[in-house]
Amino acid sequence: MAFTSIIFKNPNTGAIKEAPVGFSWTVFFFGFFPPLFRGDWKWAVIMLLLASFTFNLSSIVFMFIYNKLYIKDLIGSGFKAESIASGDMSFASSRIGMNIPQIDAA
């Protein structure tokens, strides 16, 4: 399947974030740096600590789950899907395993 990315917007603050869906190639190549650059401090620290204690073996697990964790944290922080770069929202929802709240069209 092609690369799918969701554009999220926080209706309260106006902040916009892009979140890829599925396997995290950036975590595969760069470890804990993607969450660090996304401002996802919680997962950056967790991934760094676990990588330190497991001689980086924990990164194998995070390659498969990090994007899902990031999207769930965005939704928990009040972000809603504004658009999807490619694919459709129902496919992305099924990949994440939860309904993705969307911004209502005005």
Automatic annotation (TrEMBL):
Keywords: Membrane, Transmembrane, Transmembrane helix
Positions of transmembrane segments: 21-37, 43-66
Keyword Transmembrane found: yes
Keyword Transmembrane: yes
The organism's place on the tree of life at top rank: Bacteria
Protein name: DUF2628 domain-containing protein
